[in-house]
Amino acid sequence: MADISNIRQLVSVARSRILLICPDCGQEHAEFADRLRGARYFSCVGDGCDYHFDLLAGPRNSFVQRLGRAWRKLFAAFIPEN
Ligand SMILES: [Zn+2]
Predict the structure, then answer these.
(1) What is the Cα Rg of the chain in Å?
(2) How far is the CA of 14 from the centre of ligand 1 (A)?
(3) How far is ligand 1, taken at its centre, from the CA of residue 10, in Å?
(4) Most C-beta atoms within 10 A of its C-beta, which of 29, 43, 45, 71?
């Protein structure tokens, strides 16, 4: 299970990549936050999987808050830029 406090700390890091882990098939997707910002959802490309990460779930406040909700809901982790 991801350490939520670590994720919160990393939310402030700009231009980072986000690791989305599909709850259905376990496929991992590393996407840049900037790219996800303009997307309404992100489609899993796992074999025979048509899961969609709903990036607009929850109140439409800030982008970070939306993603924070998505992370908790979808069990994803954050990858700092190297
Ligand atoms: Zn999947």
Answers:
(1) 12
(2) 26
(3) 25
(4) 71
Domain count, the chain: 1
Query: Looking at the whole model, is its pTM more than 0.85?
Result: no
Mean pLDDT by groups of 10 residues along the chain of 82 residues: 55 66 90 80 90 71 61 56 54
Q: From ligand 1's centre to the CA of 23, what distance in Å? A: 7
Q: Are 72 and 4 in contact (CB under 8 A)?
A: yes
Give residue 12's pLDDT: 47
Which two tokens mark 50?
């048509």
Distance from residue 36's CA to the centre of ligand 1 (Å) = 17
Separation of alpha carbons 2 and 59, rounded Å: 23
Q: What is the pLDDT of residue 53?
A: 86
